[in-house]
Specification:
This protein has three helices and no strands.
């Protein structure tokens, strides 16, 4: 790869921090966690009184929040390890 082919600026930073990979991992963890919480507290609980649509909305918010948090933590971890190599 020549110098002209290498990404620069934001693209290089995103590549160095492995943001795409960390986002995929974060999404997998977030969705898995939200599904587990939904199944445990809604599907298996006979005393749920509200509409399932309400709980699907809450599960969606939980999945997005958890995904973002996990992805941010993974990116910060990668940034820390890269800074230790300097």
């Amino acid at each position: 790869m020549s110098i002209e082919d290498q990404p620069s600026g934001r693209a290089a930073l995103v590549e160095a921090l492995q943001v795409r990979r960390n986002l995929k991992r974060g999404l997998a963890v977030g969705v898995g966690f939200a599904v587990a919480v939904f199944v445990f507290f809604v599907a298996l609980a006979p005393q749920t009184t509200r509409s399932r649509l309400y709980y699907f909305g809450l599960a969606f918010v939980l999945a997005l929040t958890t995904s973002g948090l996990v992805a941010a933590l993974l990116v910060m971890r990668r940034a820390y390890h890269l800074s230790q190599e300097l």
